[in-house]
Design goal:
The protein has 2 domains: 83 residues, no CATH class; 143 residues, no CATH class. Helix 4 runs antiparallel to helix 9 and helix 5 packs antiparallel against helix 6. It contains 11 helices and no strands. By secondary structure, it is mostly helical.
């Protein structure tokens, strides 16, 4: 007889996971789907409240709640405004960090390029390697960024580091130039890691759920204030619903900094690709002589 073994299974809260997945799926919708979902929620709640108060069999008991004054619900409106502001700040700050990461990555590549041109020794191979890296970022990593580094881009970055780490640079151009090149290359990798991590960074689902629910609660408060005025109630609910749809919809469109309508521009990295492999010297300049052997 096989002895019974106590089960130590860990049960996953399916309901919470489903709620989070619903928020994720909604934020991944195209712009029309995002606004349509918000319109269905808030306009639907408004229509349901009007029907419940003036058409349903419960209109008699609900009418006894007349007398609620508007300032009583001002605290809920303040909470809604504050949470919406915090939500918008989180999204905007993440987009700002993503933009800064891309600009830093492209700027450090530009520094490597400038140093390779200004140095005494020929660093044509370094310029080719950094442009290959920038091209790989735009082709292999940027379109499918999902928090994971593209293998081809990682190989291109390793190849650039290999070229920059050559001991011949210290011998031919000096230790100061070599250290500056290595420092810029390391900062390129740091900015790349930041860019990749921000590609999957999302606002807490709890914040989105809280803001959406507070919007519904405000609609309930508006309805309680206009229990005896159906037209005024419909107008107030429509105005609030429209404002909530526009505000929350615009914030939702900026949730992902690397896709959608308001995505981070790749122009700084594209500019790196436009740099010549072998830049022309000014007319009055002469190339530096090669170092003489002792």
């Amino acid at each position: 007889m096989i002895p019974a073994v106590p089960c130590r299974c860990r049960f996953v809260p399916l309901r919470r996971n489903k709620e989070k997945q619903m928020i994720r799926d909604w934020l991944d919708l195209p712009p029309f789907g995002t606004f349509a979902t918000l319109a269905l929620l808030y306009y639907g709640v408004a229509a349901m409240l009007i029907a419940l108060i003036f058409v349903s069999p419960l209109r008699g008991p609900i009418a006894k709640l007349q007398g609620v004054v508007a300032p009583f619900f001002s605290s809920v409106a303040v909470l809604f405004g504050l949470l919406t502001g915090f939500l918008g700040y989180d999204v905007t700050e993440r987009n700002r960090q993503a933009t800064r990461a891309v600009q830093t990555e492209a700027g450090e590549l530009q520094n490597v390029y400038t140093l390779s041109v200004a140095s005494v020794s020929d660093m044509h191979s370094i310029r080719i390697a950094l442009k290959d890296y920038a091209a790989s970022v735009l082709k292999n990593e940027w379109p499918t960024v999902n928090g994971v580094a593209a293998p081809r881009t990682s190989l291109a970055y390793d190849q650039m580091l290999t070229e920059i780490s050559s001991p011949a640079i210290t011998r031919d151009s000096g230790a100061a130039v070599h250290v500056a090149l290595l420092s810029s290359a390391v900062r390129v990798g740091t900015a790349r890691n930041t860019r990749i991590s921000l590609s999957i960074d999302r606002t807490s689902d709890l914040k989105w759920i809280s803001v959406l629910l507070l919007g519904v609660i405000i609609q309930l408060g508006i309805a309680l204030v206009h229990l005896d005025k159906p037209r005024a109630m419909a107008a107030a609910l429509t105005v609030f619903a429209t404002g909530a749809i526009v505000a929350l919809g615009l914030i939702a469109l900026q949730e992902d900094p690397f896709s959608g309508v308001f995505q981070v521009s790749a122009i700084p990295l594209e500019h790196v690709l436009s740099l010549p492999d072998t830049p022309e010297l000014p007319p009055n300049a002469t190339p530096a002589p090669p170092p003489q052997k002792p």
